[in-house]
Amino acid sequence: MEVFGLDIGGSGVKGAPVDVETGELKAKRKRLVTPQPATPEAVLETAAGLVRHFGWDGPVGCGFPAVIKAGVAQTAANVDASTVGFDFGGRLQATLGMPVWTVNDADAAGLAEVRWGAGRDVDGTVLMLTLGTGIGTALFTGGRLVPNTELGHIELRGMDAETYASAAARERENLSWRKFAGRFNEYLEAIERLLWPDRIIVGGGASKKADKLFPHLETRAEIFPAKLLNSAGIAGAALAATEAASTAPANS
Ligand code: BGC
User: Fold this and answer.
1) Is 150 in the pocket of ligand 1 (CB under 6 A)?
2) Which domains does the chain have, with CATH numbers?
3) How far is Cα 183 from Cα 189, in angstroms, rounded to an integer?
4) Dihedral angle at the C-alpha atoms of 207, 209, 214, 220, nearest 10 degrees?
């Protein structure tokens, strides 16, 4: 079965049809730039345009960079503030005329890694971290997701952690990998003190540069780059839609 996976991020909107049995992308993914300002209407148009580009006519799973409850965004750290309270899932469904399920973007990526990637067959506590415009987190125990964790916003050095240690911070401040790894280690240490995960998976662009980042990382838990690299968010959004579809109607 195929479901269209959409991964909406603070800087890019990506999508492709996904084989939800294997997690494989069935066509080359397409990426569009997230409109700025990232108002919900503008992001909606970009997302709908991307789905239409594939001539898709079927179910859609959508990862969105905010806390999502029943399709509605509850927060807006890296998108326009007017996103709070916006029924992104419902509006996308109405615009496309296809069933849409919406989840937090990091939760989507984590679901994919736990099913098909670096979190597969791990019984204990698994924490997926996505390093991008922000720091996204997805927490699993015994393979089950605790949805909408927002651990990229813990305080670190008097700042929102993602302001200090996201991929965007590395680029903005032109940090070397070693220097960035130092900051990320501080973040990991703070997280480990709170959660004691057994395995940490790092996704986002950094997973493609694992050889530069990972030699510097120091954790108590096992730490691995995301196996699905940048397609985890797309594949996981499609998977989340499939799982939700078995228990609830679209956009709930
Ligand atoms: C948001 C999260 C999101 C993460 C990654 C954070 O700023 O609060 O909801 O998962 O960025 O996009």
Assistant:
1) yes
2) 2-107+231-245 (3.30.420.40), 121-227 (3.30.420.40)
3) 10
4) -20
pLDDT exceeds cutoff 90 at 104 = yes
Backbone φ/ψ region at 67: left (φ over 0), alpha (ψ -120 to 50), beta: beta
Q: Ligand 1: does its nearest atom lie under 6 Å from the Cβ of 59?
A: no
Dump pLDDT digits (tens) for 115-132.
999 999 998 999 999 999
In the three-class reduction of DSSP (H, G, I as helix; E, B as strand; rest coil), residue 84 is classed as coil
Distance, CA of 57 to CA of 98 (rounded, Å): 7
Distance 150 CA to ligand 1 centre (A): 7
3-state SS string over 45-71?
A: HHHHHHHHHCCCCCCEEEEECCCEECC
pTM over 0.85: yes
Tokens (6 digits) for 68: 């999502």
Task: Give the pLDDT of residue 5.
Answer: 98
DSSP annotation string for 16-35? EEEETTT--BSS--EEEEPP
